[in-house]
Design brief:
- There is one protein chain.
- By secondary structure, the chain is an alpha/beta fold.
- The strands form 2 sheets. An 11-stranded mixed beta sheet has the order 1-8-2-3-7-4-6-5-9-10-11, sandwiched between helices. Strands 12-15-13-14 form a 4-stranded parallel beta sheet, with helices on one face.
- The structure holds threonylcarbamoyladenylate (TXA) and magnesium ion (MG).
- The site of magnesium ion (MG) has 3 residues, from loops.
C-alpha cells in the first residue's frame, strides 16, 4: 500500500529515483514522475493503464524554468499565464527537444501548467526537473480530489502520496491552445471561460470530438463512474426507487433515500459545487444504488465544465 504523508523530502527522493508519486494540486491529484525521464513517464502510463496516444501535462513552478521546455509563448498565452498562474490553466505550446516524445505522444506541442498548491510548488522548486502528471485515476474513471481517492485506486502501485488536503477547485485544468494565434479551449475546466475572456477577448471552444481527439479529455466517454449515470434535462426528475442515487445541485429530490443523494451546494454556489462534484460522484458510485441521476448545472462559470463532465460520465 502507498504511504500517505506530507513530507516533501520523501516525495523528492522517490521522484529522483525515477518512481511515481501522488501529488496534490488545486484541481485534482496528479500521478507525477520526472517528465525528462522516459522510464518514469512509462511508469505513469502503466500505472494509469493509459493509452500511449494520450499525452501528459508538464508541471513546473516558474516561467523561467518553462522557457527550457517550450520554444515560443504567444502573446495571448503570456497574458493568461501572467494572470492565472499558478492556477487551473494548461497551455499548449510548441515544445523543445528536451521534452521526450512519450510525454507529448509525438505531438509538436507540450501541455504545461504551474499548479496552485503550496506543497506541490515547494516540491517543484526543490527539483531540477519538471513533473509529468495526469490525474491520478485509472484511465476513464473519475479524477481524485483527495489523497485517499488516490490510495483507494492506485494504492498498491504508488509508493508515496503527498497529502495536501481536499483539492480547492475540484475540476481539472482548462486547456487552451493557440493555433494560428486563435486561442482555443480544448477542455473546459477549473478556470471559467468568462474569466479568460476578460483578459484576452473572445476564445473559441472546441471540446467535442469523437475521432482523433486533440485531447482525450475530449473523448465522449470519460470521467465516468462504474454505475450508469443519467443526466437529467433541466426541470426533469429522477425515476423513483430504493436503489436510485441522485446528485442534485441545491435541493434533494423527493422520494429518494437521503443517504443515496448528494447536494452539490445548498446555497447554489457553483464554486462550492465544483469542489464537491468528483467526491460525491465517487460516493454515489459506492452507495447501494443501481443508477445515478444527475441534475444539470446552470450554464455559467464553472457550470459549463461540470455539465461537460456529467455529459461524458453519462456516455456508456
Ligand atoms: O488539472 C489538471 O490538468 C490535472 C492536474 C494533475 O494537473 N491533470 C490532468 O491530466 O487532468 P490528464 O492527463 O488527466 O488530462 C490532460 C489532458 C488529456 O486529455 C491530454 O490528452 C491533454 O491534456 N493533453 C496533454 N498534452 C497534450 C498535448 N501535447 N496536446 C494536446 N492535448 C494534450
Ligand atoms: Mg485525467
Amino acid at each position: 500500500m502507498s504511504q500517505i504523508g506530507t513530507d516533501i523530502q520523501v516525495a523528492k527522493a522517490f521522484l529522483e529515483a525515477g518512481n511515481v508519486v501522488g501529488i496534490p494540486t488545486e484541481t485534482v491529484y496528479g500521478l507525477a514522475g520526472n517528465a525528462l525521464n522516459p522510464d518514469a513517464v512509462l511508469t505513469i502510463f502503466r500505472v494509469k493503464n493509459r493509452p500511449s496516444f494520450d499525452p501528459l501535462i508538464v508541471h513546473t513552478d516558474s516561467l523561467d524554468k518553462l522557457s527550457q521546455f517550450v520554444s515560443e509563448i504567444p502573446e495571448a498565452a503570456q497574458k493568461l499565464a501572467a494572470t492565472f498562474w499558478p492556477g487551473p490553466l494548461t497551455l499548449l505550446l510548441p515544445r523543445q527537444d528536451i521534452i521526450p516524445d512519450l510525454v507529448t505522444s509525438g505531438l509538436p506541442r507540450v501541455a504545461v501548467r504551474i499548479p496552485h498548491h503550496p506543497l506541490t510548488l515547494a516540491l517543484l522548486r526543490s527539483l531540477d526537473f519538471p513533473l509529468a502528471a495526469p490525474s491520478a485515476n485509472p484511465f476513464g474513471y473519475i479524477s481524485p480530489t483527495t489523497a485517499q481517492h488516490v490510495a483507494d485506486q492506485l494504492g498498491n502501485q504508488v509508493p508515496y502520496i503527498l497529502d495536501g488536503g481536499a483539492a480547492g477547485v475540484g475540476l481539472e485544468s482548462t486547456i487552451v491552445g493557440f493555433e494560428a494565434n486563435q486561442p482555443t479551449v480544448f477542455r473546459l475546466g477549473g478556470l471559467a471561460i468568462e474569466q479568460m475572456e476578460q483578459v484576452i477577448g473572445p476564445v473559441e471552444v472546441r471540446t467535442h470530438s469523437t475521432s482523433n481527439p486533440k485531447a482525450p479529455g475530449m473523448l465522449s466517454s470519460h470521467y465516468a463512474p462504474r454505475k450508469p449515470l443519467i443526466l437529467l434535462q433541466p426541470g426533469e426528475s429522477p425515476q423513483l426507487g430504493e436503489r436510485v442515487g441522485a446528485l442534485a445541485f441545491r435541493e434533494p429530490f423527493g422520494g429518494i433515500l437521503s443517504e443515496n443523494q448528494r447536494i452539490l451546494s445548498p446555497t447554489g454556489d457553483l464554486t462550492e459545487a465544483a469542489k464537491n462534484l468528483f467526491a460525491y460522484l465517487r460516493a454515489l458510485d459506492s452507495a447501494p444504488v443501481d443508477v445515478i441521476y444527475a441534475e444539470p448545472l446552470p450554464n455559467q462559470g464553472l457550470g459549463w465544465a461540470m455539465n461537460d463532465r456529467l455529459r461524458r460520465a453519462s456516455v456508456q
